[in-house]
Design a protein that fits this description.
The protein has 117 residues and is an all-beta fold. Helices cover 0% and strands 52% of the residues. Strands 2, 4, 5, 6, 9, 10 and 11 form a 7-stranded mixed sheet that branches. A hairpin with a 5-residue loop joins β4 and β5.
């Protein structure tokens, strides 16, 4: 199983980015794809997730209203649209694939997002 994030980069405050998460070789029929981030010197923060069964989504308060998680369907890439970016959004962003019930979960290696001028 491979989990690969892409789309990170340097953006000015107030700007936008869209991250992508591609999961290959994952056989689970029902799963959650989550986005996490880790800022320098801080702990991991779960910021968003999407449920493959019903498409329901969750957001941390810190990103609600600015970030949107989406997908084109099961086994398709999962996107994290990020708007009105702030310097405090600077972090390495990770994608996480977790099956419902039993089974291993998987992490990507992360993509760096830097918000600054």
């Amino acid at each position: 199983v491979q989990v690969v994030e892409s789309g990170g980069g340097l953006v000015k405050p107030g700007g936008s980015l869209r991250l992508s998460c591609t999961v290959s070789g994952f056989s689970a029929d029902a799963y959650t794809i989550g986005w996490f981030r880790q800022a320098p010197g801080k702990e991991y923060e779960g910021i968003s997730s999407i449920n493959s069964r019903d498409g329901s989504t969750t957001y941390a308060e810190s990103v609600k209203g600015r970030f949107t998680v989406s997908t084109d369907g099961a086994k398709s890439p999962v996107y994290l649209g990020m708007n009105i970016l702030k310097p405090e959004d600077t972090a390495v962003y990770y994608c996480h694939a977790e099956p419902f019930g039993s089974g291993p979960d998987y992490w990507g290696r992360g993509t760096q997002v830097t918000v600054g001028s």
